[in-house]
Structure formats: structure tokens, C-alpha cells
């Protein structure tokens, strides 16, 4: 069962306009897009969602929407996605590509989008970008957010630009970074830029502004700064967080800051990969405060204070009701179209461990679906953690990403360094590896009916094209034997 979204726009002053025509949401698999879609559907809009990969997971999540696959960098795919669209939300970035690569990808994507939106007669575009004062040198991420806005606005289609600083909500990258730092460290060394000020905004308010912009013609073709009611230094933001968690932490100023080292260290301590941490931390060098408050007259509502948005996010996490998470968007390295058919026919290495049991299929499946995250891998956990730590050191995703929900799994969710590729109730769970590997790997759990009872199996698949990749497989084979054999025994025991 999937988590039901919480709707935020009940007190919005604007009225739904369901006869607007088709509304396109790009970045549908992302943190913001994923929360916007249910809100638009609940207000009666006809919504088309764009994803790059497999559409089935999002179709299941938003059955009332039309889900299409399109890479914004691909001309023809984008043409069909923008067919017969009235308003398009532009909620895309490529931070995963890391500094030096995301900038050009994002500009190309925006240019493509602007041109085709114009050709297709799209009536308006709504873009969520980043805050920042253009009078000062900006980090590459913030500069890029502005350049994307400029690129989109070069065309004939009017663009509404909403500019936000840090967004606080359960599952947001900034929230998880702060949460992990404050929870894990007694002393945090803060560089000089931690004295810079920021105007964080709650995810609820962001969604209200995004929906409100669609419903308010005064916003067409204009740019607005959106923020919460508090302006705080980054240091103060950490203090408030520690206060809520009732943690005593020492924030120790240090005079220098080597950005690469700092972001690498933060990425090792938090679930968020270095590519994203680096871009976000670079952004802290700039003050990000709303210069213009005009949106508050057009869309008046009481914005949520920083402290309250942290508490709400924590509550949501404690209730195990996180709806979208930063990890929902795909890392760049994996091939989105990989499917099991490929796996069945072409993988070169395979190893299987199984046992017979009289336990029911539903109990076994329930137990399989508890693996990973805080529960760990039931046996030899230190080995999984060690592999995860090596992955983090190599700037991979590691195991610290955990899982979005402790009780539910759905296709495309991350599960430590895996992503769920297939999930069939009481039958099968297929995981695709996203760790740094000299090849591609899958892990499949199966429950098969036998004459008496069930067969529970785990199958590891691996494919590589290099000699090093083959050596890697043979090196880990003895460990597989130990890990997987005990893993299924433990799954069976707990079921
Ligand atoms: N989250 C924040 O704290 C925050 C703060 C201020 C502003 N914003 C702005 O809000 C917007 C959305 O951010 P987010 O946090 O939701 O990002 P996110 O979770 O990282 O999602 C990014 C989305 O972009 C999609 N995407 C990237 N390249 C694409 C391409 N070539 N074609 C099609 N889709 C592509 C990704 O799809 P895949 O899954 O296929 O990769 C994903 O759905 C961005 O403009 C960002 O600057 C966010």
C-alpha cells in the first residue's frame, strides 16, 4: 500500500480552475514535483506527469494522472510530452551530475523546453528556482538556477518564476543533512559562511505558492521571491534543530573552509551523496533572503515558521509517512530503461541460495520487505555497512540512504544502495544496485509454491565487461555465500 499524500492547499485564497486545460508537471519523480501532482489532482486539474524512466511506478502513485516518459534533452520525446498542454511546471535540475556537469545539462534542458513549449503553443510556464542576490558572486548552483530562469524567459511563453532558498520538509535533502549532522555530532565545525543568512521555507508553503501561481493570473510572466517568516543564519538553523532534538552541540567556528573537503565530510556523515551536498554547501556562501514580498499580497496565507516546519517534518518521519524524498530522483549513472528481460537473458554471473519452508507466502513476503534501512540486513550487518562505507568513500550512494518508509516498499524506492525494480505481492522483490561497481548487479527474492510449503530464494545477478569486474565477482563470492545463506534463513525465521 502506498502512503497517501497530505494536502496543503485547503486554506489557499485562490480558487481551483479545473477548466484550465492540461497541466504538465516535469520532474514528476522529484521531491517537489511528486508533492505537487496530488495537490493539482485533488483540485480537479487534468495533469500530465513527465518522467524519464519507467512510467508504471508513477502511474500507480497517481492513477488519476497521465504519465509520459520523456527526457527534456530529447527533442522528439519532449514534443509529444508538450502536445496539447496549457500550463507547464518546470521542476527540473541535474544536481546529481555534480559540479562542472550539471550547469550545461540544465541550460540545454531549459533551452529545449522553451523552444518546444513555444512551438507547441503552451500558454504559460511556472518555474521553481533558487533565491540569490545577483549583485554578488553566486555559487554555481544558484547562478545556474537564475540562468535557467533567464533561458526559459527568453521565449514567447510567459514564465512565472518562484525563487526559494532552503526547502524544509520530511525527505528534503537540506532537512536530512541538518538532521544527521545535529544527531550524530557533538561538535560541528562551522566555517565563516555559516554566519550568512537564509530564509528557509516549508514544503507546504512552496506547494501553496506553486498551485496559487497557477490560479492567479496576476502572477503570469512575473518573478517572485518566496520564503518563510524567519531569517536565520545557518548556524542558528542548526541550533534550532539541536534545540528541538534536545541535543547539546558545540558549534565551533573555524577560520578557513575548503569546500571540497567540507562537503565530502558532510556527505560521509549524512545520507545525501557528495554531488548534491557540494552544490548545496556552495550555495551557503551566499545570503538567500527574499528581496521582494509581493507574492504575499497576491497569495496571502500565514507561512510556517522554521521551527514548526522542522517539527512537522520530524513528526511525519516518526509516523513513517514521508511521501516524497530527495532520493526518489534517479542518480545519473544508472540506465533508466534497464529491465528484467535484459537481466534474464544476458547476465553472465548468477548465484542462488534457497530453503524450503512451511511458512505462508504472505508472512515470508512481509519479512522480505523489512530488509534494509534501520533494520539492516538481518545478519552480518557489519559487512553490508562496510560495503556501504566503501561506497561512500568512493562517492557512491552507500547504505546510509536507508529507505523512505520503514513499513512500506514500492517500485522505484531506494533501499540502501539498491533501488526497487520490481515488487510482486507475496512473490518477488527485485533490487537493482546503485553502488559503485565494476559492473551491474541485481538481487532478487522469490517465493515459489512447492508441493508442500514454499521455496524462499535469493538470487544475485551480476554482469561486467572487464577483467577487474570478473575478479570483483570471484573475490566476493565466498562473502555472498555467507551473507545470502544467512539472510534467507533470517528472513524465514522472522516471518
Ligand atoms: N528541494 C529544494 O530544497 C529546492 C530548493 C529551492 C529550489 N528548488 C527547485 O525546485 C525544483 C525541483 O527540485 P527538486 O528538489 O524536486 O529536485 P529533485 O528531487 O532532484 O528532482 C529533479 C527532477 O528533475 C528531473 N530531471 C532531471 N533532468 C531531467 C531531464 N533531462 N529530463 C527529464 N527530467 C529530468 C528528475 O527526473 P529523474 O528522476 O528522471 O532523474 C527529477 O524528477 C528545481 O528547479 C530546484 O532548483 C528546490
Question: In words, what does this structure look like?
Answer:
With 495 residues, this protein is α/β, with parallel strands linked by helices. The protein folds into two domains: 9-328, 3-Layer(aba) Sandwich (Rossmann fold), CATH 3.40.50.720; 340-494, 2-Layer Sandwich (Alpha-D-Glucose-1,6-Bisphosphate, Chain A, domain 4), CATH 3.30.530. It is built from 16 helices and 19 strands. The protein has helices spanning 31-42, 56-61, 75-81, 102-119, 140-153, 173-184, 203-215, 234-244, 259-269, 274-283, 295-298, 306-318, 340-346, 361-368, 381-393, 467-494, and strands at residues 22-25, 46-51, 66-69, 87-90, 124-130, 159-164, 167-168, 187-190, 197-198, 201-202, 223-226, 232-233, 250-253, 349-357, 414-415, 418-424, 428-433, 440-449, 454-463. Strands 3-2-1-4-5-6-11 form a seven-stranded parallel sheet, with helices on both faces. α4 (102-119) packs parallel to α5 (140-153), α6 crosses α8 (234-244) and α8 (234-244) packs across α12. The protein is globular. The protein starts with 21 loop residues before the first strand and ends with a helix. It binds NADP nicotinamide-adenine-dinucleotide phosphate. NADP nicotinamide-adenine-dinucleotide phosphate binds next to α1 and β5.
Amino acid at each position: 500500500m502506498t502512503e497517501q499524500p497530505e494536502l496543503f492547499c485547503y486554506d489557499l485564497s485562490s480558487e481551483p480552475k479545473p477548466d484550465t486545460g492540461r497541466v504538465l508537471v516535469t520532474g514528476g519523480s522529484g521531491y517537489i514535483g511528486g508533492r505537487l501532482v496530488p495537490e493539482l489532482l485533488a483540485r480537479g486539474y487534468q495533469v500530465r506527469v513527465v518522467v524519464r524512466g519507467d512510467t508504471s511506478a508513477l502511474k500507480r502513485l497517481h492513477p488519476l494522472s497521465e504519465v509520459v516518459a520523456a527526457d527534456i534533452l530529447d527533442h522528439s520525446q519532449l514534443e509529444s510530452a508538450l502536445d496539447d498542454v496549457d500550463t507547464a511546471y518546470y521542476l527540473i535540475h541535474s544536481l546529481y551530475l555534480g559540479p562542472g556537469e550539471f550547469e550545461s545539462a540544465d541550460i540545454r534542458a531549459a533551452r529545449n523546453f522553451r523552444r518546444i513549449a513555444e512551438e507547441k503553443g503552451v500558454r504559460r510556464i511556472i518555474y521553481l528556482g533558487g533565491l540569490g542576490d545577483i549583485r554578488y558572486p553566486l555559487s554555481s548552483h544558484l547562478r545556474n538556477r537564475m540562468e535557467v530562469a533567464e533561458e526559459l524567459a527568453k521565449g514567447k511563453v510567459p514564465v512565472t518564476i518562484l525563487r526559494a532558498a532552503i526547502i524544509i520538509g520530511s525527505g528534503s535533502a537540506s532537512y536530512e543533512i541538518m538532521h544527521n549532522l545535529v544527531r550524530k555530532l557533538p561538535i560541528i565545525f562551522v566555517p565563516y559562511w555559516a554566519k550568512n543568512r537564509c530564509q528557509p521555507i516549508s514544503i507546504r508553503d512552496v506547494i501553496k505558492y506553486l498551485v496559487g501561481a497557477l490560479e492567479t493570473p496576476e502572477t503570469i510572466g512575473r518573478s517572485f521571491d518566496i520564503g518563510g517568516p524567519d531569517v536565520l543564519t545557518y548556524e542558528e538553523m542548526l541550533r534550532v534543530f539541536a534545540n528541538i532534538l534536545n541535543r547539546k552541540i558545540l558549534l565551533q567556528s573555524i577560520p578557513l573552509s575548503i569546500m571540497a573537503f567540507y562537503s565530502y565530510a558532510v556527505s560521509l556523515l549524512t545520507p545525501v551523496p557528495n554531488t548534491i551536498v557540494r552544490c548545496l554547501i556552495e550555495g551557503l556562501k551566499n545570503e538567500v533572503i527574499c528581496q521582494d514580498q509581493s507574492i504575499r499580497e497576491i497569495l496571502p496565507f500565514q507561512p510556517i515558521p522554521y521551527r514548526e516546519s522542522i517539527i512537522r517534518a520530524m513528526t511525519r518521519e516518526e509516523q513513517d509517512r514521508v511521501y516524497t524524498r530527495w532520493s526518489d530522483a534517479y542518480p545519473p549513472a544508472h540506465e533508466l530503461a534497464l529491465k528484467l528481460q535484459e537481466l534474464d537473458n544476458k547476465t553472465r554471473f548468477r548465484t542462488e541460495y534457497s530453503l524450503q519452508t512451511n511458512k505462508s507466502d504472505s508472512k515470508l513476503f512481509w519479512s522480505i520487505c523489512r530488509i534494509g534501512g534501520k533494520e539492516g540486513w538481518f545478519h552480518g550487518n557489519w559487512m553490508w555497512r562496510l560495503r556501504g562505507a566503501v561506497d561512500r568513500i568512493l562517492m557512491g550512494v552507500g547504505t546510509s540512504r536507508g529507505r523512505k518508509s520503514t513499513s512500506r516498499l514500492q517500485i522505484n524506492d531506494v533501499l540502501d544502495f539498491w533501488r526497487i525494480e520490481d515488487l510482486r505481492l507475496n512473490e518477488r522483490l527485485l533490487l537493482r544496485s546503485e553502488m559503485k561497481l565494476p559492473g551491474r548487479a541485481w538481487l532478487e527474492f522469490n517465493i515459489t509454491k512447492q508441493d508442500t510449503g514454499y521455496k524462499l530464494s535469493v538470487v544475485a545477478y551480476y554482469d561486467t565487461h572487464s577483467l577487474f569486474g570478473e575478479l570483483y565477482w570471484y573475490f566476493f563470492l565466498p562473502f555472498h555465500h555467507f551473507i545470502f545463506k544467512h539472510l534467507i534463513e533470517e528472513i524465514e525465521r522472522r516471518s
